[in-house]
Amino acid sequence: MSETSDALFVAEPERAHLTSTDVLDRKWIDVNIPCKAACPVMTDVPGYIQAILEGDFETAYKINRRDNVFPHSLGRVCNRPCEPACRHGREGLGEPVAICHLKRASADFGYTPLDLEIVPNGKKVCVVGAGPAGLTAANDLAIKGYQVVVLEQYDEPGGMLRYGIPQFRLPYDVVAADVKSITDLGVEIRCNQRIDSEAQIELLKREYDAVILSGGCMLPSSVKLPGMDAHGFYWGLDFMMQANRELLNDIKLNKVVVIGGGFTAVDCTRTSYRLGASEITLAYRRTKDKMSAGEPEIDCMEEEGIEMEFLVSPVEILAKDGKVTGIRLVRNRLEEGKPVAIPGSEFVIECDAVIMAIGQTNEDLPGTKEVPEVNEVPQKDNFFLAGDFRNGSGTVIEACADGRKVARRAHQYLSGIKGYQDVVHIEEIKLDQLPRTREDDFIPLTTMPHIPVSERLAKNREVETGYTRELAQNEARRCYLCHYNFQIDIDRCIYCMACIDAMPVDCIKLAKDIDVGADGSLRYVSAAHWEEAQAITIDNDKCIRCGNCVRACPVDCISISKYTLETVEVE
Amino acid sequence: MRYVIVGTGAAGATAARTIKRMDRDGEVVIIGDERFFPYNRYLLTEFLSGAVSAAELFHTSEEFFEAMDIRLRKGQAVERVYPNDKTIRFAHNEVMSYDRLLIATGRSPSLGPVLRPYAKLIQRYYTFEDILLIQKRLPEVREVIVSGRGLSALDLIQGMYRVGKKITYITRGQAIDVSTVESHLMGDLDSALAEREINFVHDDRIVAIECVDNRYLVKTFQGKELWGDLVFAWDNYTPNVGCLRNTGIEVKTGILVDLRMRSSAPEVYAAGDCVEIYHPTLKNYWINFGWPNAVEQGRIAGKNMAGDNEEYQIHETTLFNILGKPLEARWWD
Question: What tens digit of pLDDT does each residue of B41-77 get?
Fold first, then answer.
């Protein structure tokens, strides 16, 4: 095994610790650190939140920079799969921790240029597309010593971060800060370089040791409705890209209907508002709870006065003299959760613009469809596919995860290493090192400050203004720090029940037996009476890491250990 | 058979009565989150102004529930429904099973994301408890600010006018926004508002509220600063469907039901202001709020829960009808 880049980013304190490759320990992380398990790049969420809690924003930034590469940007626009998984949000426990806002705070207050010792290996890699997948791959390969050149078709790097998301959610300078952090590693980005033929790709494959194609997913989904050729009809991503390139500043919008329920649809409504539209309606075929846009973005949209119509689908764009005059929609009912048009329910909304934001697809680039999958990565010799171009339209963090996976595969191909292995570091913790107390569980969610709604017409002004350091530390206190594993040493336990008396939730169990599954999952066979109990155990899935049980134990038989995951190369 | 009814309003109480008449041996439990016996919410304004007595407000009593052998659990909120387990969980974590469940939780004024941070500074006007609180504060109140959509705004303005308060009304549109009122009535409404010397702030909305020396400073989107001794504000009246969140039961704004008042989950029915039904004349989903409708839907839901098979007849009128009287009668009486 060899060191990965992890140690280059964050220096771990020198404490006695074990390393484990046991499947049970690996499974423990998936079950007990659900935020991390839900993150496509497995960001060490409790690790960086604990750093913020301790006021060490720099370490928090470095953990994020290592794991997800774009802390400034993702701290604003990540779709936050971690938050629904957060144990603080489970029934009866309150709201999930604002993990994404804390990521932003780590970048706002902890950003520091990386000072990595990179040893060049003499090999060259070309990445096509400077979006999240391509830049993540470039970042990871540059750290491994590759000379990386990124070719970008537009005039600035960032892909969807730069052109698909409005500045009031993600300012350009924020994207630029994340991109600079990658180019600081020696990655060269060449803009206005479009690669769209097999011949060009063949040339690159000869010129470079490896080529990674991550051209994104920029074409609108193929839906055809009458009237789409009228002036005033836009595809969602086109609309956003034009707005982000300042090409719509002179547009005259009055009544706008946006079709869709995702982030781009919501961005289109809010951009229309800033471009002067007075009546904006978002029309979505399902119900509000099925919208894929995030709740905070939907809240902001509502704040800005945008109306919503649910259970409706577009039928026809109405036009007169070549200009959009309205849209005919039909009401849907739900049949086993699927929207089905109600006959005779058609109605018209008058408008002068219709924006169809119902998803994107990738370009059909010759020679890319035939690339076979090798260990879940599309690879043909030294040519790889990554990101949305390969997987279809997805989220930023999914694109980052795929960029990382492909970079690892490319590195394996070029360096000859056998592969990768997950290693769990287990570090013993003393009670006085545990920063949590039971009182922390009652801290309410810290809301994100916003600019007033009356100042939202400023087109590019960022709406979310970010936590202060104090707000971030307050929010960090809410985290259960699920990377701590509390265990009872049965051999020393005297079954006095003091821990059970002290437990704040149903987290300590008397068990007749504990079944361990092949994948490391645990199932407790609970004992109705303590006389039946063969074991007393802490259910770490319920444990809120308050330390009450450790304090209450008269024989000091409850241990605390911290679990962190690292992926290492196998040579 | 255990019938559990969540909500003690017109729909819930009617359903309980209907079920008991059809299934004498059935166990009926009706649960309400307010501390009082069921009362007529639509008479609260009249009660505030003294036109209606407390006795007229409460339409049920302890004797009624005893006589009908209906178990009333008041002051207990239902937190969550588990349709797969056929159980409900109370806010105090008690779990109760059901064979058939009726959700009749009504709807209430809700605050959107702009107003939400100021919830503590906003006086609600919805429950009997709210009215008791307002009665207590009224001697100190000279001016009130009202901002909200719908007939409830009219009702509140009427109530405040009757008790002699100066009213500022803020609305997003050009005129009072009462979409269910037929257009020929709108002119009359406007003149009625003018006669009451209401300070009418149109094309505007509240964006901030501050409490200064026990008075309230309201800031609007258009930059106005208005003072009041009480602020009543809401964005919409929305169905109370919190206990159905993440249950898989289909909800648009209200609970989606068929004409037999069945929700998308087996053995779960819904009735009254919390449901939404497709209305073929309107070509839209529709919450038919108001007392007569709640009674009607509660009766049909109760019958179907007890084994009947009756369909709700969608009325072909959109004219708002409250307490069986048309709007004019309520406004100009």
Answer: 888 988 998 888 988 999 888 888 999 999 999 999 9
Q: Judge: A334–B114 Cβ closer than 8 Å, yes or no.
A: no
Alpha-carbon distance of A38 to A81, in angstroms, equals 6
* A312 close contact with B: CB closer than 8 A: no
Structure tokens at B46: 């009249």
Domain limit, last residue, from B235, B255, B275: B235
Dist CA B260 CA A121 (whole Å): 72
Distance CA A388, CA A396 (A): 9
| B256 at interface of A, judged by CB pairs closer than 8 A | yes
Out of A311, A346, A447, closest to residue B252 by CB: A311
Structure-token pair, residue B261: 């008042």
Q: How far is B44 from chain A (nearest CA, A)?
A: 30
Q: What is the ipTM of this complex?
A: 0.84
What digits encode the pLDDT tens for the residues A258-312?
A: 999 999 999 999 999 999 999 999 999 999 999 999 999 999 999 999 999 999 9
Q: Residue B131: give the domain boundaries.
A: 109-235
Q: Which domains does chain A have, with CATH numbers?
A: 6-114+422-476 (1.10.1060), 124-158+200-216+362-417 (3.50.50.60), 220-359 (3.50.50.60), 485-565 (3.30.70.20)
C-alpha span between A318 and A326 (Å, rounded): 5
B130 CA: distance to closest CA in chain A (Å): 26
Residue A113, chain B, CB below 8 Å: the answer is: no
Q: How confident is the model at residue B317 (pLDDT cuts 50, 70, 90)?
A: very low
Q: Which two tokens stand for residue A88?
A: 């603080």
Which of A226, A345, A358 has the alpha carbon at shortest distance from A283?
A358
In this prediction, residue B325 carries a pLDDT of 46
Both tokens of residue A78? 């990540």
DSSP β-bridge partners for residue B87: B82, B97
CA distance A100 to A83: 8
CA distance A338 to chain B (A): 11
B7 and B42 belong to one structural domain: yes
Contacts of residue A446, defined as CB under 8 A and 6 or more positions apart, other chains included, come to: A98, A101, A467, A471, A472, A474, A475, A478
**Number of CB atoms found within 10 A of residue B279's CB:** 18
**Under DSSP, is residue A46 helix (H, G, I), strand (E, B) or coil?**
helix
Tell me the chain B residues in contact with residue A288 when contact means C-beta distances shorter than 8 Å.
252
Which residues pair with residue A488 across a beta bridge? A558
CA distances A73 to A179, A265, A342, B37, Å, are 10, 19, 42, 54
For A282, the 3-state DSSP assignment is strand
A516: pLDDT strictly greater than 80: no
- Cβ within 8 Å of A, B 47-86: 80
Instruction: Enumerate the residues of chain A whose CB falls inside 8 A of the CB of residue B283.
Output: 331, 344-347
Q: Which of B89, B172, B281, B283 is the best residue to mutate to test the A interface, defined by the most A CB atoms within 10 Å of its own CB?
A: B283
- Please state, in angstroms and as integers, the Cα–Cα distance from residue A278 to each residue in A253, A254, A466, A553, following that order: 8, 5, 28, 65
A91 and B264: CB-CB below 8 Å? Answer: no
Cα-based distances in Å from B70 to A371, B55, B73? 69, 21, 10
Helix (H) or strand (E) holding A458: none
* Yes or no, beta carbons of A331 and B207 under 8 Å apart: no
Cα distance between residue A537 and residue A526, in whole Å: 10
d(C-alpha A510, C-alpha B257), whole Å: 45
What is the 8-class DSSP label of residue A455?
G
Q: Does B113 touch chain A (CB under 8 A)?
A: yes
Note whether B185 and B152 are same-domain residues: yes
CATH number of the domain at B170, please. 3.50.50.60
- Whether residues A331 and B283 touch (CB distance < 8 A) is answered with yes
Chain B residues whose CB is inside 8 A of the A454 CB are 207, 221, 223
